[in-house]
Amino acid sequence: MTLTAAILGLEGPVLLPDEAAFFRDANPWGFVLFARNIEDPAQLSRLTSDLRAALGRDAPIFIDQEGGRVQRLRAPHWHEYLPAIDQLGAGGPGFALRGRMMAAELRAVGIDGNFAPCADLAWPETHPFLRSRCMGGTAAEVARNAGAMAEGLLQGGVLPVIKHLPGHGRATQDSHKELPLIDVARAALEATDFAPFRALNQLPLAMTAHIVLPFLGDLPCTMNPDALRMMREDWGFQGAIMSDDIGMGALSGSIRERAGRSVAAGCDLVLHCNDDLAGFMAAAEGAGALTDAALARCDAALAARRSPEVVDFGGLRAELEALIAAQPGS
User: Fold this and answer.
1) I need a surface site. Which of 50, 81, 234, 301 has the fewest CB within 10 A?
2) ∠ at Cα 154 (72, 208), nearest 5°?
3) Which domains does the chain have, with CATH numbers?
4) pLDDT in tens, 66-108
């Protein structure tokens, strides 16, 4: 069975017949959901079931549920989480609880992958679109907190996706709109921004950053073979690596070209989130079939999915709220 090297979105809260037919034919590795796809728990459970039924397999379904400004499941049906940077005082235990709570909510509606944790360092110059999502200002703090959240997600049966490799924190531009350039010496980056990703190189999945690092050339890291080689060979990351959303303004070229260039550079998977059916078709065509090496890494990622234990969500929430309340300055 050939799998397309893509994670694709869909247009609305119901799987339409033409979308189902396309997904059956293209057989993308997985799906991504956004706020436009979500109404309430019952509807969302039907949608995730329908997506898997269209492919005839237990395909992974992802979402952005970081907490704070990037949170697709929201009140009144789901818990509202603080921005990551506002619970730093709760430390690793707080982020572990955060991940475990999110996993319980996600698994209840058929979602088993989360585009989190965000392991980018918070710098004074970090763009506002990202800064509140960061888990600390030092490599050690970020590695500890991101690792704890990833483990909480895994314990709950949800695959974490660490992002944004090789490190987006020093960018002063929003990559949704333009291509950031981070002109910092490699030695400085190795000691700071790169360090959390090296420390967490055992995680099953990662997402690239649409940034330019001049010491690696003038290509966005998502499409830069030297950047992908650094992640694999220098950092030892052996999990599956996906692109950030190829529809973002940082990238140029057609969607098909963007997908093809990302895979050619070394991304195992292409992520395309927001488009119409023709756009998702173009992404699938550009991505092509998973290579044998990419398939092996993707299979290993799926094997990391655990059977979640039943938890007392209210108890977890009370424990997290107590840690947050005990933060210095609370």
Assistant:
1) 234
2) 60
3) 4-325 (3.20.20.300)
4) 999 999 999 999 999 999 999 999 999 999 999 999 999 999 9
